[in-house]
Amino acid sequence: MMYHLVLMNLFLMFSRLKEVTEASLTKPSLPESTAPGDIIIGGLFPIHEAVEDNTNLYSISPPQRSNCSSLYARGLTQSLAMIHAVEVANRSPMLSNLNITVGYRIQDTCSDVTTALWAVQDFTRSSSACDVATNSSLDAKPTMAIIGTSSSEISIAVARELNLLLIPQISYASTAIILSDKSRFPAFMRTVPSDEYQTRAMVKLLKDRKWNWVGIITTDGDYGRSAMESFVDQAAQEGICAAFKQILPDSLADKQKLNTSINQTVNTILNNPKVKVVVSFAKSSQMKDLFKGLYGKVFNRRVWVASDNWSTATKILEEVNITDIGDVLGFTFKSGNVTSFKHFLKDLQFEDEENLNSFLKEFLEDPNVGNITVAVQKLLENTNPDMVFSIQLAVTVVAKAVAELCGKRQCKNSTDIYPWQFLEQMKNITIEMEGLNYKFSTSGNINLGYDVLLWQENELNKTLSALKIAEYNIITGNFTYIHQNLSAFENVISKCSNSCQPGEFKKTAEGQHTCCYECINCSENYYSNNTDMVQCYSCEKDEWSDPRSSKCYPKTYEYFEWNSGLAIVLLTLAALGVLFLFLISAIFIYQRNSPVVKAAGGPLCHLILVSLLGSFVSVVFFVGEPCNMTCKVRQVVFGLSFTLCVSCILVKSLKILLAFQINLESKEHLTRLYKPYVIICICTGVQVIICTVWLILHSPYKDKVPNPKVILIKCNEGSNVAFGVMLAYIILLALVCFSFAYKGRKLPQKYNEAKFITFGMLIYLMACVIFIPVHVTTSGKYLPAVEMVVILISNYGILSCHFLPKCYIIIFKKEHNTRDAFLKNVYEYSCRSAENIRGLSETKPVYIISNPQLVAAENAPHVSAQKEKQTVT
Description:
By secondary structure, this protein is an alpha/beta fold. The protein folds into five domains: 266 residues, 3-Layer(aba) Sandwich (Rossmann fold), CATH 3.40.50.2300; 183 residues, Rossmann fold, CATH 3.40.50.2300; 56 residues, Tumor Necrosis Factor Receptor, subunit A, domain 2 (Ribbon), CATH 2.10.50; 187 residues, Rhopdopsin 7-helix transmembrane proteins (Up-down Bundle); 45 residues, no CATH class. It is 47% helix and 15% strand. The strands form eight sheets. It has an eight-stranded mixed beta sheet, sandwiched between helices. The protein has a six-stranded mixed beta sheet with strand order 1-5-2-6-7-8, sandwiched between helices.
């Protein structure tokens, strides 16, 4: 049963299809405007905006005039522009000289794909041989080219049909990107740019105004979806986000569906108060209904970016105040001079109704028109200069192709030429209009560029007009502003989040738009120097920045400067020390034969003074910006000079110990080993070896230590072990001196070297005990000052304890600086020592050697032999 039912349905369908086919060959054609000519071109224009809903799957018939509704004055004007352009072309020398005329057949698409396809079938029917035989009343001349349509969706459908016969189609307003694909639409051409350039211009405008949170409104068709997809892709590359996307139905016939969609769009706009910019690719009638829906509601000022679909349709705001809607910035195709076409409209012979085409007759019957004057005025008001210019350009291309092709062959008999020949001819045509040359690109486009329009209200008559304020160059991708009206939009902010200021960066939560974010402060040593940066950049190693910084600052170089107050004080002390050294040296040279100088060591005193001079000079190398040489010199100079100083003092303390405190049994053996200069050379030589190994293996060097805001320039000791060994060796010598001198602390008071050596070494050792922990725990530019303080304390300690008492005797106690006074002091000390010994128990002989010659061999060379040795039993 099911099988028979299917067969019956198929039979009925084929029977009905046969009836429809026969009807299409016998029924009269659709309403059209025609003119005879040697070459016939077609025209497809949206003279009506919609078709009546008359869908019946079981009753398919060709659409009749009654099916179209809502006469569209702009579409009618566009068809008249083609008629005018054909008349101008026929009068031009390029056709009149060849005695060739161009005729036309203009049909209404009713803004509907199906209606347009029926019109295309009517255009191509005359090319069929069987059709000519069946209906001889039809003009047998084929249609060689078609001008139209305005809608991209309709153009795509028409282009697929025309591809079968390669009939060239030239659109004056279809901008869908897909139509540039010549592998799919080889016969399609257009005199306007594709939407790829329009959306690119829109994105450029939004980017220049820093609007990155926008809404999108488009129609549900090939044009609308293609335009929206192109805009969203290009906007995303520039960091512009779509807050919402509203798609309106492409058909205007279903009023209920359209109103529902309009209401939904109104609510979406009102629920997104942060969206101050809305980009619309919708139809003008849809935008009219949308603005009506927004009128009277709580509504903040918005900027509407209009596509070429409605950028010049200022009449849509007749019932709405533009101040309640906002501002309209529109993109339209570049236009030329359309003055001749306006004269053509004014000169139309409406009185001769017999010669009027059916479309003009219907227009005159419209209740809103009434009379001829109003009709002409309405046609002028609905004249889009860009559309008229594009249509004129398209007709001129066809006319020139006719002239070039018919100049080579006979065109009176149209059966001798074919549409595909016109197609090949058009691809290589270059035409001149108003001083500019135009040529189709390889994708079939003539890229004119765009004009940017701003809708403004006339204060006198409250009418709206579209003022051209800028031009967009497709090649350079830049705007050229004619009027600086865009300055009024500086206070318009269309952003999901406030801009992050320099010193901050954007942090987007997962799942959110990239345009919705929070601003996070840059951390220390990071910066951002522009608004809305996605990350903070790290400062260079020699730069720094505080948190939330917009730039990095160069780190200052820090070291112990010469002009530092502490450096000046320490250098002054060092200079005074050097001055004291020279004064003491002068005094000691002058008094070199006096007992005090000889008792102080004679030539060894000058060697000590020289070593202290080197120690004072080493202080200078601790100040100022270090370099590799100063880092090597300063520690080595101090180490060697102070080692020499301590070695000399060690010899002096050893001589005192041999003279007064050594047991007689070991005295003779140690006396033979007592070689002052040999001991000095050996002690100093060990330090020379230590410093040499240090310099060779891992010597000190200049080092840069980066700190948060400064770069510390300091001397790196290279090997801390070597540095420690050098200091430890000096401390060891000082301890030996201290122990030797401590044993001789009870020598004669007036010439007692041991006591002063003890104090001098004690001062140095105490300075070292303080210096070591301070040096380990201290960092920064004042670390060299710590070492300088230790050096100065040590130097002044030795200077004060070893030389100032001698100078005091030489200058102020001259009576004590004689040989007799010296021998008397030694003799009194020996007597006191002998008396102290008598009270000891007599277990074995005790010998006290008092040998003034060892203490001061140069002081008392003539001491009598009787006083040289005293033995008490």
